[in-house]
Design brief:
The protein has 354 residues and is of the alpha/beta class. It is 33% helix and 17% strand. The protein starts with a strand and ends in an 8-residue tail after the last helix. Keywords: Transferase.
Length: 354
C-alpha cells in the first residue's frame, strides 16, 4: 500500500466528471470551486441521476452522454468499477491513461475480509481514496496508491434541543441490510428508550423486529433540512451499524450538537470521543448509556456540545474540500495519474490529510 502525497490547494477551476451515487457525500463534494459534470439520462437510474432535484450550487451541472463526447473534462472521479468502461464509452478517453482519474471507495470490504481485494488493486495509475482509515486498513488495495479523505459535511448549525425523551436512529433499508446496519439490535435498545427510526424503506420494521410502535416508531425518509430539525429534538442519537463506512448521518447528528451512543465497529471509535457520548461493543452498555442520557438532559447537552466541537474540527466542510483540492492538484500537476503513483511510492510517509 502506497500513499498519495499532499500538494498545495487547487488554484484553477476544474471540470470534474462524477456520477451522483451517494447524495449526502456528493452534496459536500460539489460545494467546492469547480464545475461538476453529473451524467443524466431520461430514465434517471443509477447511471443518470444528474442533480436529482437537489439544491446544489450552480457549478453542479447535468450533462448527457452525447454532450460528454465534446466536453473538455479535466478529471473523472470514479465510485463504481463499472464507471471505468462507462467513462471510456461516453468520453472516448480511458480513465488513468487518456484521462486523469481518482477512485473513491465509499464502502467497507465484503466477502473474505481482510483478504478482500479491491477492483483497482492491480492498477497503479489511479489513486484510490478511502473515506475512513478503517476502510484503508481492511481493503487489500494492492498496487493502487491510496489516500484517506474523511467525510466532511455542510454544517446544519447547532440545533439541538433534546426535548424528546427518545433516541433517534437513521438507517436506510433496515430490513434488507439487517445485521449490517445493526437492525437486530433495535429490540434490546428500545427497552432503554423509545426509538424513532428515519430512512428509506422502513415498511414492516415493527413486524420484523417484533417491537410495537410505542417503543419503535418508523418515521420515513425526510428531506435533509426537515430531518436535521427532527433529529435535534431527540435526547440522543443512536448509531447501530456493524459493518458500514462511517455514516454521514452520524457526523451530521454531531454537527447538530447531539450526544451519540454508537456500536464500537469500523470507524466509530475514532469518530466519537468519550466526551461526546458512548461507544461500546456491549449491547448492555449501549442500552445503559442511552438510558442515562435520557434521564440526564444536562449531561446530554454537555456531551452534545463536545460532539459538535469534535465534528467541526475533524469533519468540517472546508477541510474536506481542501483535502480534495490538494489531491486533485497533485494528480494533475504531477503529469498524470501514473506520475502520481510513482511519486506516491517515493513519498509514502506523507498522507493527504496531514
Amino acid at each position: 500500500m502506497t500513499t498519495v502525497p499532499t500538494a498545495p490547494a487547487m488554484t484553477r477551476r476544474l471540470r470534474v466528471l462524477l456520477w451522483h451515487v451517494h447524495g449526502s457525500w456528493t452534496t459536500s463534494f460539489v460545494q467546492g470551486g469547480h464545475t461538476y459534470l453529473l451524467p443524466t439520462l431520461p430514465e434517471g437510474g443509477p447511471w443518470g441521476r444528474g442533480r436529482c432535484g437537489r439544491p446544489w450550487p450552480r457549478g453542479a451541472r447535468e450533462v448527457t452522454p452525447k454532450d460528454l463526447r465534446d466536453t473538455d473534462v479535466d478529471v473523472v472521479l470514479l465510485q463504481r468499477p463499472e464507471e471505468l468502461e462507462l467513462t471510456e464509452r461516453w468520453t472516448g478517453r480511458r480513465p488513468g491513461r487518456d484521462l486523469p482519474a481518482v477512485y473513491v471507495e465509499h464502502n467497507t470490504p465484503r466477502g473474505d475480509v481482510p483478504n478482500t481485494r479491491h477492483p483497482l488493486a492491480d492498477r497503479a495509475d489511479i489513486p484510490l481514496v478511502h473515506v475512513t482509515h478503517f476502510n484503508e486498513l481492511m481493503w487489500d488495495s494492492g498496487r493502487a496508491p491510496t489516500a484517506v479523505i474523511p467525510h466532511g459535511v455542510v454544517d446544519p448549525g447547532e440545533r439541538y434541543t433534546g426535548e424528546l425523551e427518545r433516541a433517534a436512529v437513521v438507517i436506510n433499508e433496515p430490513i434488507r441490510r439487517w445485521r449490517v446496519t445493526g437492525t437486530d439490535l433495535l429490540p434490546a435498545l428500545a427497552e432503554a428508550a423509545p426509538l424513532d427510526v428515519y430512512g428509506m424503506r422502513l415498511t414492516g420494521l415493527n413486524e420484523r423486529t417484533g417491537v410495537g410502535p410505542r417503543r419503535l416508531r418508523p418515521v420515513g425518509d425526510l428531506d435533509s433540512g426537515t430531518l436535521a430539525t427532527e433529529l435535534a429534538r431527540h435526547r440522543v442519537y443512536l448509531h447501530t451499524a456493524r459493518w458500514t463506512s462511517l455514516g454521514l448521518s452520524l457526523i451530521e447528528a454531531m454537527h447538530l450538537g447531539m450526544p451519540v451512543v454508537a456500536v464500537a465497529s469500523t470507524e466509530a471509535p475514532r469518530a466519537v470521543p468519550p466526551e461526546a457520548g458512548a461507544v461500546s461493543a456491549d449491547v448492555g452498555e449501549l442500552a445503559g448509556a442511552v438510558r442515562e442520557l435520557i434521564d440526564d438532559p444536562d449531561t446530554a447537552r454537555r456531551m452534545g456540545k463536545h460532539a459538535r466541537e469534535f465534528a467541526l474540527a475533524h469533519h468540517g466542510l472546508q477541510a474536506f474540500l481542501h483535502r480534495w483540492d490538494s489531491l486533485l492538484a497533485r494528480t494533475l500537476r504531477a503529469g498524470g495519474p501514473i506520475a502520481v503513483a510513482r511519486e506516491a511510492a517515493a513519498r509514502a510517509e506523507t498522507e493527504v490529510n496531514r
